[in-house]
Amino acid sequence: MGKSVNTASYRTKSIPLKVWVGVALVAAALALLPFVAALAGQAWVRILNFAMIYTMLALGLNIVVGFAGLLDLGYIAFYAVGAYVYALLASPHFGLHLPFWVIVPIGAGVACIFGVLLGAPTLKLRGDYLAIVTLGFGEIIRIFLNNLNAPVNISNGPQGINLIDPFRIGNFSFARPETILGVTFSGPQKYYYLLLLITLGVIVVNLRLQNSRLGRAWEAIREDEVAARAMGINTRNVKLLAFAMGASFGGIAGAVFSATQQFVSPESFGLFESVIVLAMVVLGGMGNIPGVILGAVMLTLLPEVLRYTMEPLQMALFRRVVLDAETIRLLVFGIALVAIMLYRPAGLWPSPVRKRELEVAATPQ
Amino acid sequence: MNPVALLSAVGIAKRFGGVQALEDVSFTIHYGEIYGLIGPNGAGKTSLFNVLTGIYIPDGGRFVFDGAPLDGLKPNEVADRGIARTFQNIRLFQNLSALENVMIGRHVRTHAGVFGAIFRDRRTLVEEAAIEKRSYELLEYVGVANHANSLAKHLAYGDQRRLEIARALATEPKLLALDEPAAGMNATETQGLKRLLQEIRRDGTTILLIEHDMKLVMGVCDRVLVLDYGKKIAEGSAASVQSDPKVIAAYLGGEISLDVAAP
């Protein structure tokens, strides 16, 4: 032992100019994107905003499913918790109007507590059994929100909560259009930049978590729980941390969703939403952050693109509309998901470990 | 208590339904020795490992390790106390690189938490660099550093065995417990393993070795414990155990041959 080694040689960290130029181009594209999207209508800016909310959700779920390997089918419950925390603390419902930056951490914290509440009793469960319990948990939260309007009205039941405060800095509200330096920003466009900021923060935190002592412990549990314990990893605490961290990101996404929509109801948090977020993680590339982002963006945009293209496509092909767009878009969406599963079973963009290995094999040391 | 005893087992018993896997097994492992554990298939060797490392709870008896009992400790707490193990059926983290496998072994001796991971303060960065450096050194130590970035599952069989040893060493064990490390190795690989075991011992780690390869056991072990049907049937130097009639009977079968040899 004690041989000296130059570890920097196999993990060089100097960033070439080419990368900086790439980063600058991507930043410019992201900055201009809402104006390009607005050419097709403000609806598309809203769709972009949803793509970012789903990205946050998928990244949070990726911690639980992708890193720690714990199948969670009730993840949307944490999104609901975050959304309702914001709704209750910033709406006329209770007459509370706390500022956005105060509520988001509260939303994350409350969701985190719910994550531990779900995690603690399910520590010994794996695979199918865990999936069933988490599925039940997701439904319990939704049903609670649906029924917590009597005897004391907390959630306002199925009507949901409306007139939620938008994000605002002083008198600068994000809910209405504004002209700055001769450029008119619509409400959704302003939210786009806020969401972009928060999403980038969530991505950075996720990347850092993955490449840390904790991230490795999560992956060890996913790979082999018995070996992980034998190597001294306290699997109970590390699993609870995975649930807690995953839930926190769900809570943040929920709070932001509330502020963007200014309306929440239990309907938004059904089982289908959980399944869609899980599909984003699995089809994007479980455990690989860029893949999960790609999955979230693709699965948000695809149904919307289909909504607008299916009728013109049918007109061009058959000179008449055979199936109306609402029916066929979900059909095509389903076919697309099946095709991804068949042709890219590891996801659209699987983990880079395999790629790195191929590079090493190509240039033997 | 005896100052040279690293691990003492007193009256260890374990029953699975109707099968008495371990019955009143007692032994002592001294600091710095290579202690062999042999016996025919089903003798209870791996069960003893699992009881020792906290995977099973013994029905009777106790272990005293490095001056304190191991009663009721969970596997991760046992690892923290300083016992690291490998598995009979290799249990690496298959889809992680060889280097990452060893880095996970450093988990128990490092401290960074959620906040360190997110904010990357100076202490965390220093710790991360140290984890990576130490892990790479251990890969060199066992001789698989040229596969540092390969997925564990793509390593050759013998290299996987060595990687498992590196991962166990990363936890800085006082006692390294190896469950059939030579299984599936050819003669050359076994020779290499023998040298590695001697090197590990020389660098100060005590070894508990389950092995079927008698040449290896007789070549490296200072003392050997023989189990048969969950009971200790012999203990002593490699040479004395080899000529023990009870051991021969256990391996070659039948009390009849024992009776013939005994009078």
Give your account of this protein's structure.
The complex is a heterodimer of chains A (365) and B (263). Chain A is mainly alpha-helical and 365 residues long. Chain A has 13 helices and eight strands. In chain A, the strands form four sheets. A two-stranded antiparallel sheet of chain A has the order 1-2. Chain A has a two-stranded antiparallel sheet with strand order 3-8. Chain A has a two-stranded antiparallel ribbon with strand order 4-5. Chain A has helices spanning 17-39, 42-67, 76-89, 100-119, 127-147, 187-210, 213-223, 225-230, 235-261, 271-285, 289-318, 325-343, 352-362, and strands spanning 90-91, 96-97, 161-162, 168-169, 172-173, 178-180, 183-185, 263-264. With 263 residues, chain B is α/β, with parallel strands linked by helices. In chain B, 40% of the residues lie in helices and 24% in strands. Chain B is built from eleven helices and ten strands. Chain B has helices at 45-52, 75-81, 98-105, 114-119, 122-142, 157-169, 187-202, 214-220, 238-242, 245-252, 255-261, and strands at residues 5-16, 19-30, 34-38, 60-65, 68-69, 83-85, 175-179, 206-210, 223-228, 231-237. In chain B, the strands form two sheets. Chain B has a six-stranded mixed beta sheet, with helices on both faces. In chain B, a hairpin with a 2-residue loop joins β4 and β5. Chain B starts with a strand and ends with a helix. Classes of the chains: A mainly alpha (365), B alpha/beta (263). Chains A and B meet through α6, α7, α8, α9 and α13 of A and α2, α3, α4 and α5 of B.
Produce the secondary structure layout.
The complex is a heterodimer of chains A (365) and B (263).
Chain A lengths: L16 H23 L2 H26 L8 H14 E2 L4 E2 L2 H20 L7 H21 L13 E2 L5 E2 L2 E2 L4 E3 L2 E3 L1 H24 L2 H11 L1 H6 L4 H27 L1 E2 L6 H15 L3 H30 L6 H19 L8 H11 L3
Antiparallel strand pairs in A: 1-2, 3-8, 4-5, 6-7
Chain B lengths: L4 E12 L2 E12 L3 E5 L6 H8 L7 E6 L2 E2 L5 H7 L1 E3 L12 H8 L8 H6 L2 H21 L14 H13 L5 E5 L7 H16 L3 E5 L3 H7 L2 E6 L2 E7 H5 L2 H8 L2 H7 L2
Parallel strand pairs in B: 3-8, 3-9, 6-7, 7-8
Antiparallel strand pairs in B: 1-2, 1-4, 4-5, 9-10
